[in-house]
Write a structure and sequence with these properties.
CATH class: Alpha Beta
Radius of gyration: 18 Å
CATH superfamily: Aminoglycoside phosphotransferase (APH), C-terminal lobe
Number of domains: 1
Strand content: 15-25%
Largest sheet: 3 strands, antiparallel
CATH topology: Aminoglycoside 3'-phosphotransferase, Chain: A, domain 2
Structural class: alpha+beta
Strand order of the largest sheet: 1-3-2
Order of helices and strands: EHEEHEEHHEEEEHHH
Helix content: 25-40%
Length: 250
């Protein structure tokens, strides 16, 4: 049995392709832990709609144990960028949010561009706000360099690895038949592995900082380690959907 998903939003065909291509990338490294992608494209009866077709898997509403989940995430992160750069061969969508994955040499360059794009898209939706503009510029010119640049200077470096890109508890489940964890709805790119913890902060999520601690028992934390929690708060800003979410995350 195959499971179709139909997108109706603006850029629906591109959103469907983003999920298909990202799922295909994950299926190369964790084939037992993703819904096998079948195809994608515009709908025949409405070409403005896009479909993504995947193999059906009967899944529970439960979340894998912290150890099972972080072990799977660590396995994804073992896969290095084929170009040695940050980005991907395709652009993606995190929900309706467009992500420019043009290859860059540094994580600071990639993340600055990505966060600026997020601010631009929010402005297009909600309109101009003077205070928010000032805060946004300070985030881009002061906070991002302060927290990301130290990881890529003084002999330190970040290895760009495959990340899920939208890893919250709503995109994780357990297969009823195999009892294996399953992840889905990715928007993959090659970046800093810690980016996948961006949704593991807000209290309302079932994934939390205990998962982060479990992960770092298996994978070495990026240096400077004393900036780790602040880095994750920075990453959480990009996935925040409202000011209340932002307060929860940070």
């Amino acid at each position: 049995m195959h499971l179709p998903q139909v997108y109706t939003a603006t850029h629906a065909v591109d959103i469907a392709r983003s999920e298909y291509e990202s799922t295909k990338e994950l299926s190369k490294v964790i084939p037992e832990n993703v819904t096998t992608p079948i195809g994608t494209g515009p709908c025949a009866n409405n070409p403005n709609r896009g479909f993504f077709l995947a193999e059906y898997r009967d899944m529970t509403d439960d979340l894998p144990s912290a150890d099972e989940l972080v072990s799977l995430v660590a396995k994804i992160h073992q896969n290095e960028s084929p170009t040695g750069k940050f980005g991907n061969y395709m652009n993606t969508y995190a929900g309706k949010h467009y992500v420019d994955n043009t290859w860059t040499d540094t994580w600071e360059e990639y993340y600055t561009r990505s966060l600026r794009d997020t601010f631009d898209q929010e402005r297009a939706i909600h309109g101009y706000d003077k205070e928010l503009e000032e805060l946004s510029e300070k985030m881009l010119t002061k906070v991002v360099p302060r927290l990301i640049r130290p990881m890529e200077t003084e002999g330190r470096s970040i290895k760009p690895v495959l990340v899920h890109g939208d890893l919250w508890h709503g995109n994780v489940s357990i297969d009823n038949e195999t009892e294996e964890p399953v992840v889905y709805d990715p928007c993959c790119f090659y970046g800093h592995n810690e980016y996948d913890f961006s949704m593991w902060r807000a209290p309302r999520y079932r994934t939390n900082r205990a998962h982060v601690r479990a992960y770092f028992k298996k994978v070495q934390m990026s240096e400077p380690s004393e900036d780790q929690d602040d880095r994750h708060a920075l990453y959480a800003m990009q996935v925040a959907e409202s000011s209340s979410t932002l307060l929860d995350c940070c």
